[in-house]
Amino acid sequence: MKVLIVSLYPLLDPVRIRGGVEAAAFYLAKGLNTLNDVKVSVLCDTKRVSKVTKCSDNGILVNYIPNPRIRVIPNLLLNVYRLRHEIVKMQPDIVHTHSPWGALASLRAGLPTVHTIHGVLHREERYLPSGLANRLNTRLVRFLHHKAIASAHCCIAVSKYVKDTYAPIARRIHVIPNAVDDAYFEIVGAPIPGRLLCVEYIGRLKNTLGSVRALHAVKKTYSNAELVIAGGVRDKRYYKEIAEYIACHGLEKSVHFLGQIDQPRVLREYACADIVCTFSWHETFSLTLAQGMAAGKAVVGSDCGGPADLIMNGETGYLVPPGDEQAFAARCSELLSNRELLEKMGRRAREVAMERFRKEVVAAQTLSVYNQVLQGFRCAAS
Q: pTM here?
């Protein structure tokens, strides 16, 4: 079976993953590549290359095509036609897309199409930059998003929350979580007491300022607490607000911004963490939490959609109401002050992650969906 994954995908030298969709496609491709009789290739349209670039990653052929740097409405629409042209040339048996324009391009090419839903856009829009151009782009993306979900031969939801949201418009929909790379399950080493780790971009949707304010509250009961944030800055004005809060409250030595870091450094940061956390206003999955669980860490996250499917509250970590800084701080303080509970939750978290997030498990579930779609496609054609 020739599988084509159409998605954002990290550049390979070195691997530096920028966001959850890139990570999901990257680990899925690696998982599928371990299966017999499956040949995986990837098509990625990106602003990070200036010309068509092809490379191989352990047998996975990756094709990067340049994407216009300015995200305007004509370019978004042209993406569908540009991707369709490339998809037809690659002649896959089935196409697995992770963007709405990829799904629509595959469908226009007349190919069996599986589409993974990573976002619930109408609940995320309020946290996006304002302005007329941004609003128009957002409306178009939301239209394409809904059209892709309604038209794809089958959809994959990364959490039950996503499935419940889109089941009324999808033809068929299955829940399959994003995969976590084997390297996270192999993490060993003594954590640094009091260190909280958050691996995600800095922005309003992620409520980064709320995380910093919560850390300030944690330090009142656990003075050695510190927060490490690994991810790029999406909103410079918002980042300035955070920096001002840190300076005003003397947290310069307790909050560490690492920026975008490569995979070896990410793994080291997980090894050093006592708790892995997110405090977002909205999440459909949270790879940060899944990777933290795989690393054997207790996790704390907002009860804002996807994390409720990941965290077994009181068993692998804690869920807190979105935006409730006192509840977030209280749960982190409780874990930092009770080493036995912290380690017990971390062990249980790794057990759950082994059952659900290993790339071989996710790849096998995904292959089952491919076979169902191909069977239905052949029956419809005969």
A: 0.92
